[in-house]
User: What shape does this take?
Amino acid sequence: MAPFTMPETLPEGEEKVTAVRSMFDAIAPRYDLVNRVMTFRMDVRWRRRTVAALTLPPGATVIDLACGTGDLCDELVAQGASPIGVDLSFGMLAAAHTTAPLVQGDALRLAVPDGCADGVTCGFALRNFESLPPFFAELARIVRPGGRIALLEVAEPPNRLLRQGHRAYFGKVVPFIGGLLSDPAAYRYLPRSVAYLPAPDDLLRQLATAGFVAVQRQLLSAGIAQLVTATRSTPAPGEA
Assistant: This one.
C-alpha cells in the first residue's frame, strides 16, 4: 500500500473524510500493535470501562461506530451485549479480528432505522469525524429513548505538569513509535488531530442540544483519556 500523506494544514469537510479514510486504510495492519505499545495497554482497560458505563442489560443491541479492528466489539461481546461494528475504512474492517457483524459506512449517514439501537459506543474517533453536531444528531436518531452512549477519546490532564509531559509524549514519542511500527505520516497527524476536539463544556453542550440527558465526562488515567456518557432523552407525554 502507498504511504499515507496528510495535507500540511488540517483538512476540513470532504477533504477530511477522504484523508481520514486513507490514513486508517494505511495503518490498519499494525493498528492494534501500535495502540498497545503507545498506551502501555491502558487502552484495554479504557475500553472495558467504556462498555461497563453503558449499564445496559444482557443482549442489548449496541452499534460500535468507527469500530476499527473490533476491540470494542469484542469487549461488548465479553460483557454480554450484541454489537454491530461500523467503520468508514475498508482497510480497518479487513484487519478486524472480532466475530461481531461489521458494516462499512459513514457514521454521519447510517443506513439504519430510527431508535434501532439500545446503545452506541465509539472509541478514539470524535476528532476524526467530518463534524460533531451532525454525528451527535445521528446518535440521537438511532438510539432508542432511554438508550445509552459511551464515547471514549483522548484528553489532556488538568494538572499542569502532567499536561506538559503528556504533550511531549503525544507530540514526540507517539509519532516516533508510530513511525517505527507503522506509517510515520499517520502518527504525526494523530497528535495534531486533537485540535478538532471542542472544549469539554462545548462537547457536553452539543450532546445535550442533540437530545441527550445525564451527560457526563469522566477523566481516565490522570486525564490522558476521557469517557463521555449520556442517555437518550425520553419524550414527554404527548410528544412524538
Q: What stands out?
A: The chain has one domain: 13-232.
